[in-house]
Request: fold
Amino acid sequence: MSYETFIGLRYTRARQRTRFISVISAFSIIGIALGMTALITVLSVMNGFQREIRTRILGVASHVQLSGPQGTLTGWSTVAAQASRHEQVVAVAPFVAAQALLTNGAAVRGAFIRGILPGEEDRVAEFGRHMRSGSLGGLKSGEYNVVLGAELARALGVGQGDKVVLVAPQGQVTPAGIVPRLRQFTVVGIFGVDHYEYDSGLALVHLEDAQRLFRLGDAVSGVRLKLKDLFLATSVARELTRTLGPDIYASDWTQHHANFFRAVQIEKRMMFLIVFIIIFVAAFNIISSLLMAVKDKQSDIAILRTLGAAPGSITKIFLIQGTLIGIAGTLLGLVGGISLALNVETVVPFIENVLGIKFLAKDVYYITDLPSEVQTTDVVITAVVAFLLTLFATLYPSWRAAKTDPVEALRYE
Reply:
């Protein structure tokens, strides 16, 4: 052990004369630890929310969607077979997409109509897991049945077995002029994926019923794909575009919901900056404590200089002292942050029971529990940035210590 390290370690231990300085150093360690704990926990909770919402969206949406020119695709079975050859594609399903009005008495709601093949659709989406009544198997060609989202069914005031009237936007020409086309459907199921956009605006019908209703013949709107790895959707979509030719347009889930996921990412970055201020304040405490230590140790520094210690050695002594504070705070912050992030789902209910409140009320929020997902990247970035900031905070006090004039320091000793 070099003498600089030995002296730096001694300076970190409290003595009666310098106990106040050591208390400030302890508060600096606590500040860094609390800042890192808060930052890791906040980032993990935001990761958890992003995962939950992404899972719910992709439980209904497709990873990749193939469509033709002008929103129609002929010969979809050939396109589906070619897409299935890609190593990432695990399931394909055709669909018809259109907008219409659903009515039940005086209740009228706009809806997004999706025509599906129940057996194929259940392989690319997770409607089967979210059925609150009935099943997708109730959608049979020619019977004109419909499965509604839970909020849409509530707004229309219907349940399983009730009738709704679908008003198609394409009119039909009669001697009396153009009149809208109407068709009565029977509700055979209700799903709830806990995502308002789909629960309040999506209705599922059989693919062939949709083709007849919207006069598509044998064509469909496109083909939905499910991938092994959803995070490869963008690259898979580009590859399929090159493989299937210019008449096929491939889009992925990141494009369909780009605004939402971009907003979540921006919020995460802003929360990182806001909570990081806590660590920044703790770093200022390190500057204060080291400056006070330099002032208190001026005579010791002067004696070391007269014994031949170089200015660089004096700098190293206080760098070691500040680095030890940074290491201690960073390690405590890592332990506290990871421990709290991994146990958020236990800690939050305990606080709610103690305080008698509910942070995420069921009648307001779809996600009523705080989810958490600890990502290694977030933890590593937080630890590295916090440690570098504390290391940077030691530079000025160490430089001041090296500039101490031995003659002036010992003049009144």
Remarks:
- Residues 64-256 form one domain.
- The longest helix spans residues 19-58.
- The two ends are 30 Å apart (CA to CA).
- The longest strand covers residues 89-104.
